[in-house]
Design brief:
about 190 residues; alpha+beta; Gyrase A, domain 2; 2 domains; 4-stranded antiparallel β-sheet; about 55% helix
């Protein structure tokens, strides 16, 4: 740090300036090394999460340590937040970390690893509003598929983690909504 170097300087002012500049240079070099370490660590985290199903920060810290990165839990949390890492449910209902771009890829191809016939729990109606219950983590996948099908009978959906509110157009009977859902989810025809 420049302050420490200032103390070690002799009496001449010329030497102070020279030593002071050297100290600044060394400090800048140290900052650059720290930034490179962080970038390398972020790249390692991204690669680990993309190619492995990591379920906890402890597991991720262990894998990072094997790659030569020693981090605290607080630093790892900041890195995960910076990378916008989220958690998602697998087919057994367990959470794992996911990079945001892999979520967009799954939605774009609409080939979710979740199977609709396994995620479906029930469908009930209150008046003309439908409530579709799913296993935790499945609701958004169901809602995306319903909305993308763009059936006239269904105005839209609102999804939580395990529940979807299906909003029909005015005057559409429940039987028409059910038949639309059967067309959208042919593998659920018997359950709907």
């Amino acid at each position: 740090m420049p302050g420490i170097c200032w103390v070690k300087i002799g009496r001449k002012s010329e030497k102070r300036v020279i030593h002071y500049k050297k100290c600044i240079y060394l400090q800048n070099k140290s900052i650059n090394i720290q930034m490179k370490d962080r970038i390398n660590r972020l790249m390692a985290i991204r690669k680990l999460i993309t190619f492995n199903r990591i379920r906890s920060q402890e597991e991720l810290m262990g894998k990072l340590e094997k790659k030569g990165f020693r981090v605290t839990q607080a630093t790892l949390s900041r890195d995960l937040k910076f990378l916008k890492v989220t958690r998602r449910y697998d087919e057994k209902g367990r959470l794992y970390y996911v990079m945001p771009e892999s979520l967009h890829r799954e939605e774009a191809t609409s080939q979710s690893p979740l199977r609709f016939d396994e995620g479906f729990v029930s469908l009930e109606f209150s008046g003309s509003l439908g409530v579709l219950k799913t296993l935790p983590g499945y609701a958004s996948s169901f809602a995306i598929r319903i909305d993308r099908a763009a059936k006239f009978e269904i105005l839209g959906t609102v999804a939580g983690d395990d529940t979807i509110l299906i909003i029909p157009r005015d005057g559409v009977p429940v039987k028409d909504i059910r038949s639309s859902l059967k067309m959208i989810f042919p593998d659920l025809e018997e359950k709907l």
